[in-house]
Amino acid sequence: VVMAQVEQVIKVGHLLDVRTGNYQRNKAILVEQGRISAVVDAKDAPAHLPLIDLSSHYVLPGLIDMHVHLTSDPQKHGYRGLVETPTREAIFGVSAASATLKAGFTTVRNLGAAGYADVSLRDAIEEGEIQGPRMRVAAHTICITGGHCDNNLLPHIYNARSAGVANGPDQVRAKVRENIKYGADVIKFAATGGVLSKNTDVNASQYNFEEMKALIDEAHDRGRIVAAHAHGLQGIKRAIKAGVDSIEHGSFIDDEAIQLAKQHGTYLVMDLYVSDFILSEGEKAGILPESLVKEKKVGLLQRQNFQKAVKAGVKMAYGTDAGVYTHGLNGRQFAYMVQWGMTPLQAIQAATVNAGTLLNWKNEQGQQNVGVLEVGAFADLVAVSVDPLVQIKALEQPAVVIKSGQQVL
Length: 409
Ligand code: ARG
Description:
globular, 4-stranded parallel β-sheet, alpha/beta, TIM Barrel, Urease, subunit C, domain 1
């Protein structure tokens, strides 16, 4: 190791290897240009360098939330959202980004925003103007006319339509290209109706197989992973068969679809916490009555099906739909995932190594950028003062958060 360029040393008492669940004792992480250049025994760490001392802490990779909407204000659901503009939403996103980072989530996948507000937010963070997690953004969610991503709140005379609407294989390909042209890192589409959209049926498929295949192939040709919003069973299966990388929500998944996901290597990103917010605070926040009715049919079943999927050994990544509920509370879902069948290690893996692998985001040497504390990865980490494998709730409020080797909390 060439120690000359090391800019920062982070001493770690208990370093969690998220691949195995084993702790390494008394290590030092060496940081060069914001990335990990080596992990050595603490006694061998170079002296006279800036030091962050986490000798009494439990340390794991910075957490990843694979399903957020940083530009969405959880108090502006339904008709309240109609007054929002992309510029206003981008400004809202500044505080949401900061809250998310301070909660220990150093990377997020932002699955849908209007007017490329997510691209602007990502770039402002990357350029160091504001503090926030690394963002991989989807820009406009793609969906059918009247589908889950469309604006279905107003009658025809208002001519309201979301920018992500596309019908037919050619239009969906064009929409993927447009998103990429203006800055999308990942692609998101709606494969079924949703809870929060007006006049959509969570069980009904949106897009036929040819459309899904065209959309996914186009994204993959351009090196982008694809996330499918899907509650209903047929839409889940169709999206998996069309080659989607992750199923979001996955509420009505059955044993056959679980096997299909296993065969195809598809990840499930199931937002187990958000139902609590929708049912207790949703009405005050402007969520439509019809959406509250839908949530009552989805929430519990989704948790039960999550338990089945965990037992079957499907790949899972951590995603919360923060933005529907309060930003910065992303860590609350860990305890729910454990309550519904995961070991604490599995829940941590979902938010670190699994999420990083699904993101498929690598440095020039082909090493994973995020989700692991390994050479080449960004020096992003969280520290807690108790063992999270024993007390998973410790991750709701990390003691220390470091991004690019710099302490942000
Ligand atoms: N954005 C999602 C939708 O509108 C939220 C679903 C939340 N409910 C749940 N049980 N995960 O469909």
